[in-house]
Amino acid sequence: MAEAETRTITVFDDRSKTGLPPGEYAFCEMFCDEPGCDCRRVFFYVLASFRKGPEAVIAWGWESAEYYANWFPHADPEAIAGLMGPCLNIGSPQSELAGPILGLVRSVLLKDEAYIERIKRHYQLFRAKIDGRPMATSWSRKRIRDKIRKATKRKRRA
Questions:
Q1: What distances in angstroms separate CA 99 from CA 20, 29, 55, 76, one per listed residue?
Q2: Domain membership of residue 80 as a residue range
Q3: Residue 1 resides in a domain
Q4: Total domains, the chain
Q5: Most distant CA atoms of the chain, gap in Å
Q6: Beta strands in the chain (DSSP E)
Q7: Of 57, 84, 119, 151, which shows the fewest CB atoms inside 10 Å?
Q8: What pLDDT does residue 133 have?
Q9: What's the confidence (pLDDT) of residue 107?
Q10: What 8-state DSSP symbol labels residue 111?
Q11: Which residues contact 108 (CB under 8 A, 6 or more apart)?
């Protein structure tokens, strides 16, 4: 699944718009593997087609500032903002292209609602595996509710 659902963005010749050289950029998702953690964050390990090694590691949390303040109660507002991101992950390798790649994350990836939902689904799958619990995402619960509603409507018509 990981290879099939890895998001890539191809940048063509116009470097003036993105600040990035032409090439294909792969956004590999990484999640926290600490048992019991529920940070609800993804780390995009970004690779470029034209050289080896990471170009950037970008952290992004999709929950509200209130969620992160409750999850990490002694954090100051700056730390909370860092948990939410998107931001360049401190302590991770960053190339000279990291800033423009962060801009691409903000302007392209995080504008795509379907992709955001896919990240959340991947997170749930990953966390379920790490924590040894059954998978029950809001996406799967919604599908189950929809099936129940449809079945109920069919019974009423019969």
A1: 10, 18, 10, 24
A2: 7-157
A3: no
A4: 1
A5: 65
A6: 7-11, 23-30, 41-48, 54-61, 87-88
A7: 151
A8: 73
A9: 94
A10: G
A11: 9
